[in-house]
Task: inverse folding
């Protein structure tokens, strides 16, 4: 079973959209796919048409009530199974605070079912707390979706630091395998600037033992497409909702990349990205968000956003609350992380 956590502590970058539609594409191709919703917002559960309140207790019950994962899985489509989430999951971090080995509960639970599936894809919440730690402990790979906007790479160092920490202490085979650019608009210099910053960052790690030393930018960019935003409210994947739109073809290509993406099979995906046009589907309701016109406007927009949304990084150390993560609590690793963040930013010319 190939196991992937889709993680970025930044909110709204395309994690859930990526999990739902990549899993949908793989399942339609006949692969047996399990997805896990580890976000108390339950967006993946809802996206797949499941009533989160009544049927979304699976992830909580596995983590907090030692439920058997086999009995909690919901068969939501042909070849697609979901371990659902609901708001109960908010309490998991507190309930597990004194449980020994709380970072590896999911990994242990998955042993029961790993032989039945070809792919496991986990939708992580927008934080680096215990739920994301459980995901990182249970998988071999991390996919990082990024929305290439101003400050897209803020907090990137902390994310890398967390993966490194889990890799060195809990899950030595953990690797960041891919970075997926979501809501990408190649007509803006901002998108291509962020892309080249990431390329530079990855280039600097080649040949090192960093978990992202072999990571690459997925050669398919997910274009901004209104159909992708509409599909969840109908409880449908993009292939069920609008199979002919750009969003559907982009996620088909991501699935193809995954299937062939073990080192040598990327030619087809690369061909597709060369053919990607940024013109949104010409449906009348298609909209594009206005692009900030100047750095000043971008800064103001980012300032407003950060005032409205608390930075999850600031709560990450608190959220660990773990004895085996005690360095984090003491701040030792936080310091390293800040330094690393600074180094990364310097490397990226920020
Ligand atoms: N390529 C796209 N084009 C247009 N809208 C998109 C695209 N990808 C995602 N969206 C929309 O953007 C919003 C955020 O996407 P999504 O929920 O996938 O992000 P997320 O990272 O999972 O967010 P959170 O951190 O809150 O879990 C959603 O309303 C989604 O429908
Ligand atoms: Mg989400």
Result:
């Amino acid at each position: 079973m190939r196991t992937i956590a889709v993680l970025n502590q930044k909110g709204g970058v395309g994690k859930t959209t990526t999990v739902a539609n990549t899993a949908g594409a793989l399942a339609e191709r006949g692969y047996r796919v399990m997805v896990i919703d580890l976000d108390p917002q339950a967006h993946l559960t809802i996206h797949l048409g499941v009533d989160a309140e009544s049927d979304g207790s699976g992830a909580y019950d596995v983590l907090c009530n030692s439920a058997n994962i086999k009995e909690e899985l919901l068969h939501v489509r042909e070849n697609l199974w979901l371990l659902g989430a609901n708001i109960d999951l908010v309490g998991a971090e507190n309930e597990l605070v004194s449980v020994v080995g709380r970072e590896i509960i999911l990994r242990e639970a998955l042993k029961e079912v790993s032989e039945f599936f070809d792919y496991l894809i986990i939708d992580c919440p927008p934080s680096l707390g215990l739920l994301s730690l459980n995901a990182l402990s249970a998988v071999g790979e991390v996919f990082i979706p990024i929305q290439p906007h101003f400050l897209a790479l803020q907090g990137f160092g902390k994310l890398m630091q967390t993966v490194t920490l889990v890799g060195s202490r809990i899950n030595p085979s953990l690797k960041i395998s891919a970075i997926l650019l979501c809501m990408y608009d190649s007509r803006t210099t901002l998108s291509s600037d962020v892309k080249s910053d990431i390329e530079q960052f990855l280039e600097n790690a080649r040949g090192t033992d960093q978990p992202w030393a072999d990571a690459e930018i997925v050669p398919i960019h997910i274009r901004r497409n209104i159909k992708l935003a509409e599909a969840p409210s109908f409880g449908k994947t993009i292939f069920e909702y609008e199979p002919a739109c750009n969003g559907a073809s982009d996620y088909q290509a991501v699935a193809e990349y995954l299937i062939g993406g073990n080192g040598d099979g990327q030619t087809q995906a690369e061909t597709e990205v060369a053919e990607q046009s940024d013109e949104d589907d010409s449906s009348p309701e298609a909209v594009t968000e206005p692009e900030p016109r100047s750095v000043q406007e971008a800064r103001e927009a980012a300032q407003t956003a950060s005032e409205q949304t608390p930075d999850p990084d600031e709560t990450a150390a608190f959220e660990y609350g773990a004895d085996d993560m005690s360095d984090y609590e003491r701040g030792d690793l936080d310091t390293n992380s800040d330094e690393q963040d600074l180094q990364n930013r310097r490397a990226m010319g920020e």
User: Anything to note?
Assistant: Residues 262-271, 282-342 have pLDDT under 50 and may be disordered. The CA atoms of residues 343 and 350 lie 10 Å apart. The domain at 2-347 is CATH 3.40.50.300 (Rossmann fold).
